[in-house]
Structures are given as structure tokens and as C-alpha cells.
Fold these 3 entries.
Entry 1:
Amino acid sequence: MKIIHVAGTKGKGSTCTFTEAILRNCGFRTGLFTSPHLIDIRERFRLDGVDICEKKFLAYFWWCWDRLKEKCSDDIPMPTLFRFLALLAFKIFAAEQVDVAIMEVGLGGKFDATNVVQTPVVCGIASLGYDHMEILGNTLGAIAGEKAGIFKKGVPAFTVPQPEEAMQVLKEKASQLDVPLQVANPLDSKLLNGLHLGLVGDHQYVNAGLAIKLCSTWLQRTGHLEADFMDQTSSLPRQFINGLTTATLQGRAQIIPDPSFDIESPGDLVFYLDGAHSPESMEVCANWFSLAIKDDRQQSCSSNQEHDNSRTSNELAPLNPGKTSGKDSAQILLFNCMSVRDPQLLFPRLVKTCVGHGINFNKALFVPNMSLYTKVGSSTSLPPTDSVVDLSWQLTLQRVWENIICGERGYNNNADLVSVENKDHTETIVKSCENSMVFSSLPLAIKWLRDAAKHNKSVRLQVLVTGSLHMVGDVIKLLRK
């Protein structure tokens, strides 16, 4: 088993996905360990592009657990969750005899559990930005130093174009370890022969360029000299193109029409899912969402010549929906993030980028994550809808949002309490301001969106779900019900 090791604060998951897809299309048996999962923990372990099956996962899980449990004591406790999962990944990939294992760093690099690998074939560092600063440091230089911890003496490494502060640290760390560090240029879209990357967004060409270098180096260093494309600039092999154009990654730049609507009203409620949670990735997410909305409007205009907004109800009238040829459209933000993140950094990047494209959010909905834990092969455990939920963080997010949107008008402290009817009873569970609402649970927010779409037949609701990969996974699970 030959290993490719990838770190980064943004884009590492996409880079790993492209890398796995390319090498799988080259005919190799692949294993991919990625983080985090959205719905089922088995998503972290992929064999030949597919999540490991439940039977195998449980067998390997208990094999590792029982042997660790035998050795643990007060002085040597059981490993933490991610360390256990990393160990489990190594066990699975070794037992399954994969040709190549692509290991995605969980956090940082230097002290990450995946960094027990002493002789990877090649290392890669995706785009760096301000994320996990409470652990990695408050400067790009400090963050780059942590990421460079995956460098190994004499092992080739690649990175993408980085801010100068980060790039300087990467070069210094590489020089100290005699690491031949090279910068991978973004993929030229012309090399795809008219096809499109499997992962959406202009930023994915940066991740694809890094993946190509990682794969080419792996092929070269493992003796597949006939597949050495290190200097390929005019064309790409068919296997590379197939991998790049068929790669899939759930919860990143993913568009899902709400399946609860019948065939007569498709697209009345559409969810745009992206797990961005750093200032840099938030800007990338906003750019993707805005362009997707523009594409939707253009398609509507080309397929519909007449417009009728006479059925817009009072509930959505204040949203001032944007016009399309077929229907009005209203953009809504569905958001949550970890309390260690700073909404004062996240929201401005999101709003400014969208406004730059002429996209304005009509409403922002703030919710807590609903997942408590995930059992293998079963639904995510959900809290009771009538349980007491601490919404202090969501109210903080709302306050920051209102300040940004309203500017000098500030936050409306006289927020209204709104009742939403459940199947069994009605509860006062919503705090509503001029530009935003706080819901006590994600299912109630989804219900509000569905009710709004059903009561406003002439309005297409386009909901950007972002800020948390956990919440993105929760939304996907709810939509599948």
C-alpha cells in the first residue's frame, strides 16, 4: 500500500477526491480516508470510490476496538475518535490490499493522527486560509507551519499558489527537510476536451491541478513510468480526464430540488448546499451560489416568455423577490456554524460577494445542528422537537447578521415571536427580525420553507445552506425522508 498524504484548510477534500478518481480510473485499487462525514461515519472510508459496506466496517471496527481495549489502562487510555478512525483506516486499507491510500489530514498536519506515515510517496498541501485558528494559530504563517508538518525528508511535495506569508513558510520548512516542493498550477479547462469537472466551481481547477501533480508523481515513483505525465501541458490522458470529470463529493457545491414537491411544481424549493466555514471558503461558496442563481435565471428566461406574479402572498411580499421570466425568485440563507468561528469574518465575505453579483438574501434562517450522534446503518439521532434548546449562539448570529444588513439601523431588539404549527401541537419557537429568523430546530426551518413555497406558487425559493458540514448533512438526511 503506497500512500498519498494531503493537508490544507480548504480544498483538501476536493483534491483527495480528484486524486482518488484519477488513480481509480488508471486501474488501481484505491482507498480514501476523508474527514468529516455528512450523514454516516462510513463515508470517511471509501474503497474504489464507494463507501465501505456496513458488514465490513463493523468487522474492522470491532477488530480494532477489541485489541485496543485489551491494552488500554488509566495510563494508556483509548485513543480519541479521530485517532481511532485514522487507525481504522490503515487497518481497512491494509486488509483490503489497496494499491494506493489517499489520506486526508483531519486538522493541522504536524500533530494529526494521519501523520504517523513516515514514508508517503508524495505529499500535497491545498489552499491555506484562516480556519481552526484556536488550534493552528492566528496567522497564515503559523497555519502553514502546522500544515508543513506532513513534509518528510526527501519526499516530493506539491502545493497550490498560496499567499506570500504562507508560501514563504512552506518553502522554509521544505528546505529544512530537503523536500523538493513545487507549485502546481490550476488545471487549464481546455485540457478536458470540452467536458466539465465533476466538482463545480472555478476554485476546483486549482484543486484539480494539484491532484494531477500528485497522481503523476505517484505513478512515476511507484514504477509506472509509462504513465509519467509530469510535464504534460498540451493534453491529459483519458484516465485523468475520466477521473476529473466523474469525481463526486457530497455537500460541496451541490444542488438538490426539494423532493417533497410534486412533478407539477419542480424547482419551487431548491437547496444549494456547500459546507464552507472559513472566510475564504465562504467567498468561494458565495461566488458559486451567485453564478448558479444567474444560470437558473437565464434558463428560466429562455424557457418562459411570460411572467405572472399576481399570486405572491403577503408572507413573501416583503422579501422583494428577484424577477425571472417564469417565476419570481427569493434567495434565503440557512446557516449555522461552530461557536469558535467568527461571524464578523464570515458574513461580510458572503454578503459582499453575493451583492457583487447582484444577489441579495431576502431572509436568513439560523438553526442549531440537529445531529447528536450517528449510528452505523441507522438514522441520525434527533433531539425531541419539544426539548429545550440553547439558542444563544443562533441569536448571536442573528444579531451580527442584522447589524451587517441593516447597517446604521442596527439590530431590532424587539424581535417578534412567531408560532409554527407542528403535527401534534403549536409552539412558540421562532424569533423573527426584519431580515432573519431563529428556529429552535432544523426540521422546523425546513417546514417553514416548504410551507412558504406551497403558499407562494409564483415564487421560487433558492436556499443556500452553508456554514457547517454537519448541518449540510442534516439537511440532506431530512430531504431524503
Entry 2:
Amino acid sequence: MPSPHLTTGSQQPPKTEGKLRLYSMEFCPYAQRARLVLKAKNIPHDIVNINLIKKPEWYTKIHPEGKVPALDTGSKIIVESLDIANFLDAEYPDNPLCKPGDKELIQKIAPITDLFYQCLAKTENKSLEEWAQAFAPHLAVFESELEARKSTFFGGEKPGMVDYMLWPWGERAGTIAIAHGAQLPFASDQFPRLRKWRKAMREDKVCSEIYNGPEKFWKCVEMKLKNLPPDYDSI
């Protein structure tokens, strides 16, 4: 069971000496990136979930902007999901996740995530066909990369860094259909490798153990869009 989301008035939990601590939020895709890497590399850690709408007063001492994820190593605080992932892969060299060319490819995920949130919030008056056209060239980059690597995963026979950095939005892709009442109208033969990748990632042990899915994420999004009380522990 996930730990409860600490809110205003709560006390900061004491740390265990020698154990990493991740400040997270159960439904945040960026925090999920850090959780995936910690789990994939089997790094001892604990997780403290933060209510991002009604933050504990002490949390700004951890992250001045009040965001997640934030990793407390015992000697320093590391923020930003990619910086945390890179730190963990370098500091804990067993089961290395990053391959040559991965960091450049990971930078190309950002346009997809930007479009994803715009599409959910309907910030532009676009039809589903227009949204699909906007996504297509960015998805094609990753489709072509899987073809070039000739593997199910970007990491090869098992997921690697690109897979874990992209997967939180693969897990949440179905949220668009919930928000719009219909799926993006991609052709059935479009992106076959990405479709296979998404299915394989869903079945991966690391991903499946912390899977929440699009329905729970949509409830979280609705709380924000409708300015509802942020009761994340009830989702």
C-alpha cells in the first residue's frame, strides 16, 4: 500500500540512516520515473508522499518550489526526475540502465508530455484528428528508434533508461480517451512497435508493481481541473 500523502500540519517523518528517501506523489508521472529506477536497480529506499495542493510546511526546506520528485541521499537533495535517474544509474552501477544515445532520445520525450497535458486540459480547440496529427511526428521518432534498435524495448531484451523515462505516459495514454470520450484516431497499422512496446512494458515486473493506470490518474486530473479537494488517498 502507498504511504498516505502528507499535508499541511503534518510532521516530517524521521529518516533511516543510510537509506535513500524519495519524496513523491503516488500519481505523478515524474515521481514515477524515479520510483521505476529505484525499483529496477533494487536500491534500498523509502517513499514519503506529498499532497502537492496542500503541502506540508516543512517540505519547502526539501524542495523550495514544493515539487516532486526530490531525492534525499543523506548528504544532498537532488530534484528533477532526469537528474535523479542519472544520479541513481551512476551511483549504483549494478544493472546499468543507460545506453549510448539514450540521453539524447530522452530529451525528445518532453514534446510528447507537453502535448499530453494540453490534450487532457483541452487548452486548444482541436478535434481528435488534429490532436493525433500533432502527436504523430513525435511518436514516429520513438517508433523509428525501436526499429533501428531491433528490439522490443529501447533497452534491448529488457527495459532500460529510455523505457522507464517514457513509460509513465505510456501507462497514462488511455486518460486521453477518458477525457475526450474517444481514442485518438490513429490508423490500426500506425506505430506497431510502440503498441508492442506498451504491452510489454505493462507486463514488466517493475512497471506492474507500481501500476495505477489511466482511470486513477484521470481522477487526480479532475481534482485539479475542477478545483476539488485534493484527497489523493481516496483514489
Entry 3:
Amino acid sequence: MPLTFELCPGRMVGGHHPCFIIAEIGQNHQGDIEIAKQMIRMAKECGADCAKFQKSELEHRFNRSALERPYNSKHSWGKTYGEHKRHLEFNHEQYRELQKYANETGIFFTASGWDDMAVDFLQEIKVPFLKIASADSNNLQYLERTAKKGIPMVVSSGMQSMETMRRVYQTVKEHNPNFCILQCTSAYPLEPEDVNLRVIAEYQKEFPDIPIGYSGHESGIEITVAAVALGAKVVERHVTLDKSWKGSDHSASLEPQELKDLVTAIRTVERALGSGIKRMLPCETSCHSKLGKSVVAKKAIAKGTALSLDMLAVKVAEPRGVAPEEIFQLVGKKVTVDIPEDESITAEMVASCGKKV
């Protein structure tokens, strides 16, 4: 299968296509749908390709004890973990409202489906792709069921080993060729020494027929930009309107100006990556005209003389002569004209020299 696929309608990922940038709103909307809409608009204005949320059907994601346990964190929105999560969870109609708003805004809309029922709902509203969170990337039964839906998938790999990710790849690939894997470390915020960007290259070797990307939780934008330089074709970063807001994800998120700077930096790096073909570019012509060197006669050379290295020098010369890298090909060839000292040696002055010299 090709390394590229259509992640969203009209938007290919992989190969030489632009990096797909996901603004992970997650639950940084504080449970307020108007803030969620502001964040969708912000993601669009900053240049992101997609605004992403997190969808759970709480009774299918957590057991009763998990929902009833006390939650006393400073980030809590309720006395129990269930109350906290219910405060942050939008219902189906709210999701449809947000999706409609994103469509009107002109940005792709999707979510991580944290359980089978959430995935079914996301399929129902026809999101363009499904995001698999790191916590579910080793949930092979869930992966298989999700892959069988035939919707493109983006799979994060935090907390997993390479052996597990091989099983993830095999499980999804059997049912769905249109997916990518993101290098990820599940810590918030993430310290640079734990990012492990070299895994991107290892994934590229292990899974050469799918795009590889990066999901980051670090502070700043530099590491994510480096991931793109290393070949990440999809990147995901949490975003917020204010890092000081209540919520554990805000400190590892990008504020609007940071997101805008990240998008700008990624697009600059993509331009800088180029084609991979090494040649003199048109923009270098001026410099080459002024500074490019040629082979010249170190001393006067009589017609018919066989050239040796001690007769030749390399200088910036007018007119332009034989290129310096061809100097060794001149040795032993006879000159067809008298060449004064310090004169450029051109291909036409050397017997059987031709244009290759």
C-alpha cells in the first residue's frame, strides 16, 4: 500500500504532503460549549487543520467504583471522579452542534473515542477520522472493532513498547490500511529527555508503508518542529485559551500565539526540507557568478603541451573555465592553443576534452 492516504476529505497525509496539524482541545473547554466554540475558531485562525475533542460514554469507559471514587485534586470539577468527568463531557446534541460550528468555520472536526459506544457515536456523525488515545492503543479488541469500521485512524503510542506497537500495527492493518502511528510519551507536561524523537525513525523502519507522526505534551514548540524535520506527517498538540485555567492538561497545552507560531514554523520547515535532490539552485547563480572558481594556467603553456598538475591553479576567473572538480581530468591532455599565464582554461582549449570537463 502507498505511504499516503486520505485522512480527511481532500486532505492527503504522508509522502510529500504537508504535515497535518491537530489542535487537541480535548476537555480544555471547561465543560462550556461557548468556550469550546471559541477554541475551534482559535484553532482555525492559527492555521491548524483539525480541531479535536475527547468523547466518552462514561459508564462504558469506567466501572462504577472508578466513577464513585473521591476526587480531591485542585483540578476537580466535582466531589467524585464521575462528577468531574460528567461536568466536562458534552452530550450527543452538543457534539453535533460543535461539529456544525467547525464545518461552518472551515476546519476538520473529530474526537478521540474512549470506548466502543463513543466510537459508534463518532461513526454516526461521520467524523473524517478516529483518534485512538494512548491509553487504548494496547486495547487490541477495541482496535480491531474500530479498524473494521473502515474510517481512517490516528493511533498514539504513549505508555507502549515496540512489541506492543507491532501488534497494534498488525491488528489495524489487517482490517484498515488507512492509519498512522504517532510517537508519544504520556506525561503532562513532558520533559525533553523523555520525548524520544528517535522513535520516529524506528517506527519509519518498522512500519514503512504507513505515515508516522508525533503527539507532544512538552512545553514550547521546538520539539514538535523537530519532529516534523524528522519526518512526522501528522502532529497533535493540546491547546488552551489560558494555561492558568483549572485542569490538568492546560499546563502542557499551547496558547493561541504558540499554536500560531508552531504552524508557521512547521510550514517553514516543510519548505526548507525541499526535494532531496542536490544541485545548484537558481538562487545560487549570483553567488556562483561572483565566487565560483575555475582552472587557470599557473604559467604560460605552449600549444601541444600535455598538462600536468603543476601547470594548473584554481582561481575566481573571467571568463569562466573548467570547473575545479574536473582538474584531475585535464592531466595528460594536450592544449590546442597557446595559453598565457593566469588565463582561464576552457574545455575548447584542450584536445578531446569536451563538455564533460
